[in-house]
Amino acid sequence: MRGHVLRRLPSALLILFVASLVIFAVLRLVPGDPATSLAGPDAGPETVAAIRERLGLDDSLPSQYLHWIGGLLTGDLGPSYAIGGQSADLISDGLGATVELTAAALLFVIALGTAFGVLGATARRGWVRAAVRALTTGALAVPPFVTGVLLVLLFAVLLKVLPPGGHVSLLTAPDLAVQYLLLPALCLALPSAAVLGRYLKDGIERALAEDYVRTATAAGVHPRRLLWRHALPNALPPAVTLLGMQTGHLLGGAVLVEAIFAWPGLGQLAEQALTRRDYPVVQDLLLLLVTVFVVVQLITDLVYAWLDPRIRWE
Amino acid sequence: MTELYPSMPGRLSRRSALRSAGGGALLLGFGLAGCRSAVSETGSAGQEGSAGPRRGGTVSVAINSDFTPSLLFAQSSQSYQHRLIYNTLTRYDDRLTPHPELATSWDYAADGRSITLRLRSDVTFHDGRPFTADDVIFAVKNLQNPARAAQLRSTAAVITGFDKRGDHELVLRLAHRVNNLFDLFEFMIITDRNSVEEALKGTRLNGTGPFKLTKWSPGSGLSFVRNDAYWLKDRPYLDAVEFRVVSQADALVSSLRTGQSQLSFQVPGRNLAVLKDHPDLTITPYDTGAGATYLGVNTTIAPLNDRTVRQALAYAVDRDRLLAQSLGGYGLASAAPWPKSSPAFTETGRTHYTHDPANARQLLKSAGHTRLDLPLLHLALPGDTAVAESLQYDLKQAGVHVTLQPTDPATAQKNLISQKMPALWTMSHGFAQVQPSTLAVSAYPFNEARNTSKFHSAEYTRVVQQAWTSPATGAAAGRLRQEISDILLDEAFIIDLVIRGNVQIAARRLHGVTLNKFSYLDLDHAYLAG
Amino acid sequence: MTASELLEVRGLDVEFTAPDGAAVRAVRDVSFTLRRGETLAVVGESGSGKSTTALALARMLPGTGRIRAGQVLLDGQDLATAGPQELRQVRGARIGMVFQDPMTALNPVLTAGAHLDEALRAHGRGRDKAARRARAAELLDLVGIPDAGARLDDHPHQFSGGQRQRILIAMALAGEPDVLVADEPTTALDATVQDQILTLLGDLNRRTGTALLLITHDMGVVARSCARVLVMYGGTVVEDGPTAEVLTRPRHPYTAGLLAAVPRLSAPSGTRLTGIPGAPPDLARLTEGCAFAARCALAEDRCRTATPPLAPTPAVPGEESGTVRAACWPAAERHEPLPAAPPPVPIDRPRPGAVVLTAEKLGKTYRGRGRRGRTVTALDGVSLTLAAGETLGIVGESGSGKSTLARVLAHAHPSDSGTLRLGGRDVTRPARRELHTVRRSVQMVFQDPYASLNPRMTAGEIIAEPLHAFGIGDRAGRARRVEELLLLVGLEPGAAHRRPRSFSGGQRQRIGIARALAPEPSVLVCDEPVSALDVSVQAQIVGLLTDLQRDLGLALIFIAHDLAVVRQVSHRIAVMHRGRIVETGTADEVCENPADPYTRALLAAAPEPVPAAHLPRPRNTQVPA
Amino acid sequence: MTATAPLPATGKRPRTAPRHPYRAALASARGRTGLVLVALVVLAGLLAPLLAGHSPTDQSSQSLAPLGTPGHPLGTDDLGRDLLARLLYGTRADLGIIVLSVPLGALLGCLFALLAAVHPVLDTAVQRLFDLVLAFPGLILALAVTAILGPGRLPVVLVIALAEIPAFGRLLRGGILVEREREYATAARVGGSSRIRVLTRHILPNAADPLVVQIAVSLTVAVFVEGAMSFLGVGVRPPQPTLGSVLSQSVPYLSDAPHFAAGPLITVTALVLGLSLIAEALNREIRR
């Protein structure tokens, strides 16, 4: 396992390096200017010049890049231009909320996806399969910004059982935090759950057609065990890879969902920072997300190997 | 962030029982059924009592964008916390008559070249340091710094000398007479001069205001608690105030509908319809006007350099429909920038241009055009897009075919202040709600020296300068205001569409909320009825 | 029904729904009985319905399969109508099943122990996990897995193919069933391993008294393992009787034809087998009448109009009457054995000419994937020569390196060491241009006619591909050549426009041969060209290759694992083992007087279709056909 | 060698050549239902100019007219535009976007996969490239791309295509790795075909099956992305309607005027359902 991690390290670092270049370049290509957005709508040129001077935006691009990377290597993520405070503080504040949201969404994805997949593949009753199909289709067809508003209308406005948005840290008040977490996590999870459900359904159907399931059936194994013990474990490894991909989507999708549920996470921070051209925050944040993705990929590989004994022994 | 949720009242009502049941069903597996609910009652009150003012309670304010410390000294879209943490020297009433705040009284010199301010002596900052004239001197000098990006810098820059007479009396000497000094006093927050850099980073905001900032959670909100040593006796009533960042309009509405927030000024007009009939909420439009939606015209681009063409555009737009459909009916359709409360407001000015496509076509024809193709820049936000679409349709009826250019705010801002706007754009401007002269010296679109429309006219410059440096009241002032209005309407480089007032949505139990002219939230006298 | 009759199948009809919605009767009116402790073989070719019959017993039919009519009585309980709960109690506990492919029949993510544990707990065998584990170890030991206790925690991929089949057998035995249904249990295995597995099954039958129902296509396996045999064709039972009797004196022309088509190890080199002409029937299109009628030399009019019932046949000399039943109108009236098939005909083939291909000390290692980079030596100093018009047979079991050798000879893969000469030129590592000419003279026929033809191209395109690659002819010329080649391999020219899917296995292999012949090679490397084909078809393809060699003067490399086929077609044989050639010699010499112990083991393990005890020396015998 | 396959082995029925799997898939019940749904949506889009009684951008003072209003069967939106016209033209716009972007993404993905097949070093490089694309949060990317290119169809098409590149690329790369070990590929090499020819004529057509299924899936994703981009204000240039933009405009009125959102929601659902049915049918036939 350590060997695997070590082997992947150089290419992971390469990705991060290229990503940092791309992020830096793209941000400079985007029109707009941190100084003008910071100056406010009625500022004159002298105000803008003063701000540019203060932020070091008149330095050459390579020197700005090196300054950023140098800072990162020494653990200094730099100050936020526009939002206020240090980039590191902003990101660590948002990271907690986003990790809570993504993790909860991931749980939903796994739970709902498995339910969709298993029911879709094995349910005998036609209406159950139809319901699963309706749910998965709906989850993919209705965009999160509509799902989110509908969920809020239903659970917060009509039933008044859950808050419409906002965030309480799991660390300070877990009981309340969970109530804030439910709707956004569900909203974020639905499309991915539908994708996972389809994938698992397909995998389970495939696995159930395999010879080894016939072997087990011939041994008199109960259909329930055929599903959970024989078919599902074989459908899982590829689903884990998919889940790894979906984690990226969840982090990306957070931009929308966080806005709808007033969730103070990285998605909101990213959007805010990008809107104000807060270069250090956007740069740090995007690089962080790329890092997370790379790490998730690595974890996915390890979990895959753990789930599939054939990989372990190769 | 600890106190963003009000706690659950003790007695189990039918509704809360229902909620526990529903919530419990939903929380299945979390083992939380029967625990505290995160669904708040409408505003949590202190003790039971009558409908009169009373102490206690927490008010949650929903804001659509977070506090930006670096813009502490500029007017940004979010200045609500300014008057909670800080005070200003004076405060206007609706008729633009200043009233004492930290300044108890003032005297203008006869030539208008200096003013003597007498300050309250019983004021301390949150850290206990007494407030003195030095703090005022610092505040003025601070705004003179271009890096602060203060819109009223030009007015602050007129103050050239400070004569301190003891700790609580101060004479400000002016380079020349200006008539919007009290705009500055309304605008300028008095901050602790020792911690201004920390304030700009958002780490420490030390003021003299009724509430102390206990925590700023970027992206999430601000928490304030009552300043027990506030100079206004027995005020404020409220124990605490929460600012909750809810950037998305629909989420903002939901937050209010569910009682999670009790106060907001930032619900877009289109979203207000759902709140209109809500039993627990009251909607209060302020007709003082905090800003106006306008159609900007780049006067250097042919054929828009022709005033007639610009006037045709002003006739082509249907302000009433725009108001009704894109802004939910909250505001005042007006061709002039002035809100009803402005001394410059006239009904003839407001209705100078009304929807008249035939006239618009006629004017275009007279200028030698039957069809124009022009770009129109707007912010890529839902409300702004709706306005732009509405304008596009109206202009098309007059033969002006515009291509929309949805643009992200940062790029738009850069184009705006670096004079790089395309032929047409639509945005909002402020500063028409105070002294009319302030508009032309502080609001960039109207600036006589340098504006986005690249409009120059010696006449405009002369009138503006004259209006700014002459007394604020009297017949001459009225005449100058009229002249400014006439020029603005006639030249039509900024075509005003709708004056947007602040629309306050508040819980029915919340009373005594006011805003100053720069949308600083004043909760000195606010209370939650029983 | 007597007490000893364990399983009785009456009038079993199984139907599938084809993708186009048509009903396909895969099994029609099958009846047989199985007594306690009996061994019964069901033999037939692809599509005969034998596997479907086996699966239908425990209602394990896949997909759209369903029992349309008939009964499956297990001690009087009709499984054809049993509910899911009852079936679960029967599966594993009363009927144990072993399937063909041990590579896919075990769950890759479960350990051997977990497999057995599942089977045990399904029937409440063993009080707790520990008890079941102990029993699992016992079972593994019983089926002959060494160090059984320690290997419980290994996963399937850590076992060899034979060991996996043993695990499957252990699983089937876990529920202590009364009958073991083994569906082609040894088809995927090497001959020596097959021998061990068959021995194991026989031992188990004797020791535990478990009845054995063995499904196979291999007459040799039948002869070796079962007392009674059921021959199936086109979904029906065509013949049923004691193995010794059926294999020596078949009543049904199909059985006779099948036996005649099986290559005998004892048949000398250079003889020709008679295959059954035609191809097995399309089940979806079967009408009334004997399914075999279209291919039967003895068919009469009634055979084509009325389905013959399975009825006792009159006794023939040397046999007591009524032991054999056959579904054949003429057989019911015949009192003597079927007319003798001609003995294997020696072919007149030209003497081998000059040496065209020489290999010296070829070596090839594959680097295993993964971090250890385990290397596998596939070829270890292999030397051989091949003359024009000569056939060199190469035999060996899986992993012996024979397929690698074929690929190296045909320049599909380069060798790591050694030299390869073609007509005296060194072509070990040819340059790009040279490789082209080398490839033109050395072509290859592949084992799997399903996998070696691009499913997206028509037969014509496939055959024309080498012509195109070597720049032979223009468009019209190529089309003519394709037509010629199709005729040469015995296909209609019209076949050019069809895709591989619409051909039968034998036809596909003919296309593969036509493709290989397209650039007019001098050497043809055939890698297991017949091992994926049914016996009756196998004989046709072998015959075709022999004919082509004679007519075109080809030098042939004929690779196979079946010694009998190799002996028949080859001038000389090379035996491969672990990447080396352990023995070479003329075909007859290697088979009659093997020098290497490995060759002897191979010969000993090859099952003969007719037990030696029942059969005089083949050369003198009238082999029935 | 023998029939363990449930059905009598295919290929023994010379009476009719087996149909191409794609055609068989589309002829199955599932495939046919899917096809009908997709065809309905496509027809609605294609025939928008004929079916819509109004221009999708014509406004009136009649805001938020309910369903069944004379002249406006689906009602009007907040700016008084005919919702039927906006729905039809929106569908048309979406179709225009997805039929451009998904094939573009597929094409680029396949080109990269082919590049990867050439040499192991290129393979590694291409894989890392895919990782890089996947690692960027899509919507942030969408904001950046649109900010650079300006508003319009182009950035939407590019963002979707970019997002689809790794999906197709990885799929084809995997397929090529599997297929090139198949015997027919070896046979083609032995038969003298050049590397390029083996790759393009033999391996590619066989590795392409999963791509066809992926196209159906990706079309769904494309509609999804278009919606999200519209919501973020970086979609197609207004006032041109798209399904996503009509939907995001309807959000403020979800509780008061749900019919505003209903049209696009039903259309998108029909499209997604249709495509997923087709994908499933294809999957079944290809695996057969």
**Strands of chain B, count:** 23
Largest beta-sheet details of chain B: 7 strands, mixed
Low-confidence stretches of chain B: 1-34, 41-48
Number of alpha- plus pi-helical segments of chain D: 12
Task: Tally the structural domains of chain D.
Answer: 1
CATH homologous superfamily label of chain D: MetI-like
- Count of DSSP helices of chain B? 17
The chain pair with the largest interface is:
A-B, 67 and 71 residues
Largest sheet of chain D: none
Task: Please name the CATH topology of chain D.
Answer: MetI-like fold
The rounded Rg of chain B comes to 25 Å
Please tell me the overall pLDDT of chain D: 86
Sum up the overall morphology of chain D in one term: elongated
What does this molecule look like?
The complex is a heterotetramer of chains A (314), B (530), C (625) and D (288). With 314 residues, chain A is an all-alpha fold. Chain A contains 13 helices and no strands. Chain A has a domain of 212 residues: MetI-like (MetI-like fold), CATH 1.10.3720. The mean pLDDT of chain A is 87. Helices cover 29% and strands 21% of the residues of chain B. Chain B is globular. In chain B, 59% of the residues are buried. Chain C has 625 residues and is α/β, with parallel strands linked by helices. In chain C, the strands form five sheets. In chain C, strands 6-7-8-3-9-10-13-12 form an eight-stranded mixed sheet, with helices on both faces. Chain C has a six-stranded mixed sheet with strand order 20-21-22-17-23-24, with helices on both faces. Among the domains of chain C are: 237 residues, P-loop containing nucleotide triphosphate hydrolases (Rossmann fold), CATH 3.40.50.300; 193 residues, P-loop containing nucleotide triphosphate hydrolases (Rossmann fold, 3-Layer(aba) Sandwich), CATH 3.40.50.300. Chain C has 21 helices and 24 strands. Chain D has a single domain, classed as MetI-like fold, CATH 1.10.3720. In chain D, helix 2 packs across helix 4 and helix 10 packs parallel to helix 11. At the A-B interface, helix 2, helix 3, helix 5, helix 7 and helix 8 of A face helix 1, helix 7 and helix 14 of B.
Write the layout of secondary structure elements.
The complex is a heterotetramer of chains A (314), B (530), C (625) and D (288).
Chain B: H1 14-26, E1 58-63, H2 82-85, E2 90-92, E3 98-100, E4 103-108, E5 114-119, H3 133-144, H4 153-158, E6 159-164, E7 169-174, H5 181-187, H6 196-201, E8 211-217, E9 221-226, E10 240-245, H7 249-257, E11 263-264, H8 273-276, E12 281-285, E13 291-297, H9 307-316, H10 319-326, E14 332-333, H11 347-350, H12 357-366, E15 372-379, H13 382-397, E16 400-407, H14 409-417, E17 424-429, H15 436-442, H16 458-469, H17 475-491, E18 494-500, E19 503-507, E20 510-511, E21 514-515, E22 521-522, E23 527-528
Parallel strand pairs in B: 1-10, 1-11, 15-16, 15-17
Antiparallel strand pairs in B: 2-3, 4-5, 5-7, 6-7, 8-9, 9-10, 11-19, 12-19, 13-17, 13-18, 14-18, 20-23, 21-22
Helix pairs in contact in B: 9-12, 15-16, 16-17
Chain C: E1 5-17, E2 23-35, E3 39-43, H1 50-57, E4 66-74, E5 77-78, H2 84-90, E6 95-98, H3 112-122, H4 129-142, H5 148-151, H6 161-174, E7 179-183, H7 191-208, E8 211-216, H8 219-225, E9 228-233, E10 236-242, H9 243-248, H10 253-261, E11 271-272, H11 301-305, E12 311-312, E13 325-326, H12 329-333, E14 345-346, E15 355-367, E16 375-387, E17 391-395, H13 402-409, E18 417-422, E19 425-426, H14 432-441, E20 442-445, H15 459-469, H16 475-488, H17 505-517, E21 523-527, H18 535-552, E22 555-560, H19 563-569, E23 572-577, E24 580-586, H20 587-592, H21 597-605
Parallel strand pairs in C: 3-8, 3-9, 6-7, 7-8, 17-22, 17-23, 20-21, 21-22
Antiparallel strand pairs in C: 1-2, 1-4, 4-5, 9-10, 10-13, 11-14, 12-13, 15-16, 15-18, 18-19, 23-24
Chain D: H1 21-27, H2 29-46, H3 48-51, H4 83-118, H5 120-135, H6 138-149, H7 153-179, H8 183-190, H9 195-207, H10 209-231, H11 243-250, H12 259-287
Helix pairs in contact in D: 1-12, 2-4, 2-12, 4-5, 4-7, 4-10, 4-11, 4-12, 5-7, 6-7, 7-9, 7-10, 8-9, 10-11, 10-12, 11-12
